[in-house]
Structures are given as C-alpha cells and as structure tokens.
Write a structure and sequence with these properties.
By secondary structure, the chain is mainly beta. 0% of the residues lie in helices and 41% in strands. The chain is globular and about 35 Å long.
C-alpha cells in the first residue's frame, strides 16, 4: 500500500493524504494535518491554487499577510492563491479557551 502519512519533525506535524490530486482528477487535494505546538512553516504562497483550512479538533492559528486569526472547531478560512500565509499552533493542548487573537 502507498504511504499516505508523512511526519515533519521540523514543524511538529504529521500530514495524511486523504485524497490526492491524481485521485480527484486535479480537482483538489485533501490533507489532514495533526499539528503540535509549532511556529509552522514560514510565510509562503501558492500561485496555482487556493488553500482552505478547516478545524476539526482543537484550534489553529493562521496568518495571512500581517493579519492573524484563530480558528476554532467548525471554523474554516480559505487563503486565495498568491496570498502569503502560514499556519501554526501556540499550544499542545487539544482544547483551549475560546478567545480571539
């Protein structure tokens, strides 16, 4: 069976590919990320596609340009193609107080 989960100790995450672009005929790629406390990847952007983040457990911090936001369970945000962004996690706790950034 093809390997579908990849661990990146540099940013304390694991990424599991649920659907690849080859499996969806180029429509989308669906990845589930388990992110521990981490500064995440540096600001980066994608020219060819937008990226949607949806929180299923815990919280996720997201920076787009200079703006920072905190996403809670059930919330999502789409970063348009060409927009500098990064995702990160300020805690190892699965659940956190529902405060805004």
């Amino acid at each position: 069976m093809e390997r579908r989960t990849f661990v990146n100790p540099a940013i304390n995450d694991s990424a599991t590919f649920i659907k690849t672009s080859a499996e969806t005929e180029g429509e989308y790629t669906l990845i589930e990320i388990d992110l521990g406390k981490s500064d995440g990847p540096p600001l980066h952007y994608h020219n060819a596609f937008s990226e949607t983040f949806e929180v299923r457990e815990g919280v996720l911090y997201l920076q787009t340009g200079k703006e920072k936001r905190k996403l809670n369970i059930g919330q999502s945000f789409t970063v348009p193609a060409g927009t500098p962004h990064r995702f990160y996690n300020e805690t190892n706790d699965q659940y956190e107080k529902d405060d805004t950034v």
